[in-house]
Amino acid sequence: MTDNLMSKYPRIQDLEPVASKKIPPFIHAYLEAGTGSGNTMARNRRALDEITFTPELMHGRFEPDLQTNLLGQEYAMPFGVAPIGLSSLIWPSSEQNLAAMAARLNIPYTLSTVAGASIEDIGKQSNGLGWFQLYPPHNREIMNSLLNRAENAGMRVLVVTGDVPSPSRREDMRKAGAPIGSRNSTKITSKIFFQILRHPGWALASLKLKGKLRFKNMEPYAPKNSSKPISTFIGEQLNGSLTWDYLSEIRSCWKGKILLKGVLRASDAIKAVEVGVDGIVVSNHGGRQFDGNPASISVLPSVRQAVGAKFPLVFDSGIRSGLDILRALALGANFVLVGRPFLYGIAAIGAEGGDHVAKILKEEISNALVQIGAKNIPELRQRLNL
Ligand SMILES: Cc1cc2nc3c(=O)[nH]c(=O)nc-3n(C[C@H](O)[C@H](O)[C@H](O)COP(=O)(O)O)c2cc1C
């Protein structure tokens, strides 16, 4: 079965078109869209493609060792699953499937604050390897409660997202009929209804959700008997709440490791180090927030320079292959997060889609290291064309 999958879908780019056929257009737009004209997304791709290595010959046969230590934890490979809000809307149970896959393979899975599945459920699936992504709520009691739940569920790392000062416009989602910005954002319009009818596989799988959007992490805090939809309450709590002072508060509440996600400026990276975070995720949110952002990969070297050689740096935005992962590692990242590709895998193949994506990435990393003639990351960096 797995060999068969590798013949059908040997690359991430072979999964995306299949995924896009299986899910309704308004859901596909949610997964795929950038913002504005999609220029930041395109810039991420172009900038990664421009990074090359000149191979060194005569290294004989070797099997690259992909084991990577990040924040005191050994992972089997230098990548993990990025937080994707409402993954279970893209494909039902994808949060559980991806968390279980990650635990099996010994890589981290990051659960979003706005996931469909609960911290408690995913904590169990993650076997002590889970990360929890926090959009900090304005209300400190809710923040404290979320952190307690994450700690009790065994979440190892807190990923605080800093690059969502307000929702982005997501024009492609609006055009596809997603109920963004409408007064009742959980309403099923006739446009959505007909899209769902034309995607019976997704519709049947989604029957489990009983036609209702679930935000299991935030639901317990929503006012009871309110006429407002839950998404309005969540927006009021999470949008634009984070400041450096608030990050310091979170630092003093959370005993485990913290990553600040969404950093692009060297000066922000330096402030984050001063506040006491344990690492930084250099990211432009996969091009979903601001269409005038630089490609994340193009600012990675300046962030590395600002924080020094030893400080843990994670990278995401536009990673679509093992070669892309090596590009980020060569330019100064210690670890990489992969977002949309894991959902392409699940939507295209089903529950084992995440395993297949991880397998593609692993094979590509190993193969590229041998082609480059690099047995480790310092050697990889020597082969990079600057
Ligand atoms: C559908 C979707 C939902 C996302 N939801 C979140 C989220 O809840 N929290 C967060 O920090 N980042 C979120 N992100 C951003 C990802 O964590 C990550 O930064 C981005 O997807 C990386 O780019 P890539 O998809 O090109 O790999 C989301 C991305 C996508 C595609």
Please give a structural write-up:
This protein starts with a helix and ends with a helix. The mean pLDDT is 95. α6 runs parallel beside α7, α14 packs across α15 and α17 crosses α18. With 386 residues, the chain is of the alpha/beta class. The chain has a single domain, classed as Alpha-Beta Barrel (TIM Barrel). It contains 19 helices and 10 strands. β1 and β2 form a beta hairpin. It has an 8-stranded parallel beta sheet. The site of flavin mononucleotide (FMN) has 22 residues, from α3.
List the helices and strands and how they pair.
Elements: H1 2-8, H2 16-22, H3 25-32, H4 39-49, E1 68-70, E2 73-75, E3 79-81, H5 87-90, H6 94-105, E4 110-111, H7 119-126, E5 131-134, H8 140-152, E6 157-161, H9 171-175, H10 190-197, H11 200-206, H12 230-238, H13 244-253, E7 257-263, H14 266-275, E8 279-282, H15 296-307, E9 313-315, H16 322-330, E10 335-338, H17 340-349, H18 353-372, H19 377-383
Parallel strand pairs: 3-10, 4-5, 5-6, 6-7, 7-8, 8-9, 9-10
Antiparallel strand pairs: 1-2
Helix pairs in contact: 2-17, 6-7, 14-15, 16-18, 17-18
This protein binds flavin mononucleotide.
Sketch the topology as an H/E string, one letter per element. Answer: HHHHEEEHHEHEHEHHHHHEHEHEHEHHH
| Structural class by helix and strand composition | alpha/beta
Number of strands: 10
Shape: globular
Mean pLDDT: 95
Q: What percent of residues are in strands?
A: 5-15%
| Rg (C-alpha, Å) | 20 Å
Tally of distinct domains: 1
CATH homology-level superfamily? Aldolase class I
Q: Bin the helical content.
A: 40-55%
Name of the level-1 CATH class: Alpha Beta
Bound ligands: flavin mononucleotide
Low-confidence runs of at least 5 consecutive residues: none
CATH architecture: Alpha-Beta Barrel
The CATH topology comes to: TIM Barrel
Largest sheet: 8 strands, parallel
Ends distance? 41 Å
